[in-house]
Structure formats: structure tokens, C-alpha cells
Amino acid sequence: MSKEIVKVILWEENQKDFMKKFYDIQFIPRIGEEIYLKKEKWRVTGVEHDLEVSEINIYIELIQKVKQEKTFNS
User: If we measure between CA atoms, which residue out of 21, 9, 6 comes closest to residue 46?
Assistant: First the structure.
């Protein structure tokens, strides 16, 4: 069996900002599914398959930001 590589591109839905490319991922998330990227929670809003160029565009929107500032109690 030969394994074809599919290029998967993640786009932020509201601004259509390119986030990151992945190659040969194990599964494609479904619309409405929540995923974790860059320590943030995202929801998949759209998936487009382009079979001619073996490319999948996944559109995502940010659900919640993780607080980067930590407060320490003395």
C-alpha cells in the first residue's frame, strides 16, 4: 500500500488568517468538533476538500483563550 500525503491548512474563520500547515495527520476533525492548538481551544466551523491538489482547508474559531499571566499567592 502506498500512502499519499495530504496538505492540511488551518485558517482562523473570522479573519481568514493562516495559522499552520500540517502534513499527513491521522484524522480530519468534523464541523463543530473542538480541537486544541497552541494551548488554545478552537471549534471547527468548516472543512473543504480539494481532491485535485490533495489539500484540505479547515476553518476554525477561537473558543477561549488560556490565561498566560499567573498570579501567585504569598
Answer: 9
Residue 45 gets which letter from DSSP? E
Total Cβ atoms within 10 A of residue 42: 23
Q: Tell me the pTM.
A: 0.70
For strands 55-64 and 34-37, give the pairing: unpaired
Residue ranges with strand state E in the chain: 7-12, 17-23, 34-37, 40-50, 55-64
What does the pLDDT look like over 4-55, one tens digit per residue?
677 888 888 877 788 776 656 678 889 999 988 878 899 999 999 988 888 8
